[in-house]
Design goal:
Elements: H1 2-16, E1 26-28, E2 39-42, E3 48-52, H2 58-65, H3 71-93, H4 95-98, E4 104-111, H5 115-124, H6 126-134, E5 137-140, H7 142-220
Helix pairs in contact: 1-7, 2-3, 5-6
């Protein structure tokens, strides 16, 4: 019964452009606690939401094939409602994994692969529908899931831009810090070079001239003049 639901969900994933994002933007039947949701969709900053695609359709098909207002239709309609109720009980029994998890997006999507069926549930089983919503179990059809995944894709892309911008700003801050450090080193070594240059000027200036005078005296002296 989940084959149709899973097929439609995967088609929507492909239409949105998230097909290559398996393992990053979404997972299929990945274990969470004691449960294995049909699909899990990931939002930025650790958020995620589960989706159950195993919506019961057998008794719905039986119901629409019956004569209107016949006992058979009434029986199929009651059976279909019980099928939906059983699905909700199952998910509620695993709400720690499906709803009350640490992913921040604390609701579970119950996927109905046909908008006509979803509208029937909303109109005919209003009590079930409202009770499920209060317990954070949301029925969604193909068009609604498409919109939700479109929002997911936009959130992921915006997060990537935000991360890239943050990286650029962080790198600019690091560059500015290193630039200030480099200028400080230039200034320090400039002062050292200036001091060294002054010392060097002393060597090649007065010291050099004093030594040259001595050398001149040595080279011009008379070797026979013992006193000199």
């Amino acid at each position: 019964r989940g084959a149709l639901g899973e097929y439609v969900v995967e088609q929507i994933i492909e239409w949105i452009g998230l097909k290559e994002g398996e393992g990053k933007s979404w997972d299929k039947q990945k274990p969470f606690g004691d449960s294995r949701p049909d699909f899990t969709f990931y939002f930025p900053k650790g958020g995620y939401v589960h989706l159950d695609a195993k919506f019961p359709l057998d008794n719905y098909h039986t119901m629409i094939q019956c004569n209107p207002k016949s006992p058979e239709e009434d029986t199929a309609k009651k059976n279909f409602k019980e099928n939906v109720r059983a699905l909700l009980r199952k998910i509620e029994g695993a709400k720690k994994d499906y709803i009350e998890h640490d992913g921040g997006v604390n609701f579970v999507m119950i996927f109905v692969p046909n908008m006509q069926v979803l509208n029937f549930v909303r109109e005919e089983y209003d009590d079930l529908y409202k009770n499920a919503s209060k317990k954070k179990m949301l029925f969604v059809g193909p068009s609604e899931l498409y919109s939700i995944l479109h929002i997911l894709k936009g959130a992921v892309e915006n997060f990537r831009v935000e991360q890239s911008t943050k990286e650029i700003i962080d790198n600019m801050k690091k560059f500015h810090l290193e630039w200030d450090n480099m200028l400080s080193e230039f200034d320090k070594h400039g002062k050292q070079l200036k001091t060294a240059q002054g010392s060097f000027d002393d060597i090649i200036g007065p010291r050099k001239r004093a030594l040259e005078k001595i050398v001149d005296k040595i080279t011009s002296s008379d070797s026979s003049d013992n006193k000199e």
